[in-house]
Amino acid sequence: MKDQRLAFLSGDEALARGAWEQGAEFAASYPGTPATEILECLARFPEVDAQWSVNEKVAFETALASSIAGKRSVFSAKHVGFNVAMDPLMTAAYTGVGAGFVAVSCDDPGLHSSQNEQDNRLLARIAKIPLLEPSSPAEAKDFMKHAFTISERFDTPVMVRLTTRIAHSKQDMKLGTRRAAARRDFKADPEKYVMVPRNALRRHELLEQKLARMQRFCERSPLNKAEIRNTKLGFLASGVAYLYAREAYPDASFFKLGFGFPFPEKKVREFCARVKEVVVVEELEPFWEEHLRMLGVRFKARHASFRVGELRPEHIARIVKGRPRPPEAVTSRKPVMCPGCPHRLVFTVLKKLKLLVTGDIGCYTLGAAPPLSALHTCLCMGSGITFFE
Global pTM? Predict the structure, then answer.
């Protein structure tokens, strides 16, 4: 990834490039698709100390510590990996940061390589931190500038959410040069960083005040765009859902949510007042639907059947017309272990011994498939040991 004017990058590569251009000096992660390539790309830059951690909790804490010490830092994980980091994330919203700190969640609608379809937009709301959602690889790069700026302006971690389609699709984009970020020296401040109950209660009060300021800032953000083309039909969308809707209805109006939480209520209400019919398009959970309901805005939501599985371009017209998701046949080729994989021999022996095997997350989960059929449980990282006990 040498400096050049144009490059053809995936969303993961672009986000890593954007972090480097904005002066990031530290990054930590635990591997998991579709987030793995972010740290791999950051490791190519000599200015970035990129580290694999033993799990996502350690990665988050290490990156946050680097931020508090004064270096712009990045934590990245797939959606289920974010669960492991929730303990420090929740309190990090109270303590705040030092230099800019960006937490990247790569969600996996359609379960291309995951055990659930978790929608981590909800976690931004639970943790009370800003949520940015790029709609393309190029935006993934450009949004890092905004993410670091918001983090430092409001003293908060910022979540940037990608999905598999954004993380792994590629796009031509212009590259920028690296901008050295201003160093922020650590200053001992127990009331800010020592979360005993007395301090934490005060930090929670400050967080609520901060949320109100961030909401006002969000109303003015250029990442949220009202695109008025006609007054008959308007879409509210974010991420790849925005691109699908634009492709299906190029003449419709759109409100594109790039900075979605805190929710830009005033700006959205103004958009909805300008179009006759509002349609919400999103993947997985009814996150934007719930916000519109709280505003009392009339809109057409997607059918409940679209809350399972990956959204596709051909689904947009069905959502507009109120039709359910069509049945889909699963015809994908079953994955197999790589030639020479040492796990194959282990599972062969386990099957011959007719043992009950409690499994774990990883490619060795393929031991559950025929002809081996020698793995009987798989829940989450580490559960192979706890289930066995």
Answer: 0.89
Structural domains of the chain ordered from first start: 6-219 (3.40.50.970), 224-321 (3.40.50.920), 342-388 (no CATH)
Helix (H, G, I), strand (E, B) or coil at 331: coil
User: Which of the given ranges, 14-18, 112-116, 296-300, has the highest pLDDT on average?
Assistant: 14-18
What stretches of the chain show up as alpha helix (H) in DSSP? 11-21, 36-42, 56-68, 79-84, 86-95, 121-127, 137-154, 164-168, 190-193, 197-219, 239-248, 265-274, 287-295, 315-321, 342-352, 383-388
pLDDT value at position 330?
Answer: 62
pLDDT band at 306 (very low <50, low <70, confident <90, very high): confident
pLDDT-derived band of residue 389, with 50, 70 and 90 as boundaries?
A: low
What span, in angstroms and rounded, lies between the C-alpha atoms of 139 and 194?
Answer: 36
d(CA 11, CA 107): 13
Neighbouring residues of 24: CB distance < 8 A, sequence distance ≥ 6: 42, 48, 71, 72, 73, 74, 144, 148, 181
CB 23 within 8 A of CB 70: no
Sheet strands side by side (includes 259-261):
49-52, 26-29, 73-78, 101-107, 158-163, 131-132, 259-261
Instruction: pLDDT band for 43, please (50, 70, 90 cuts).
Output: very high
Whether 123 and 105 have beta carbons less than 8 Å apart is answered as yes
How do residues 97-117 score in pLDDT, each as one tens digit? Answer: 999 999 999 999 887 887 888
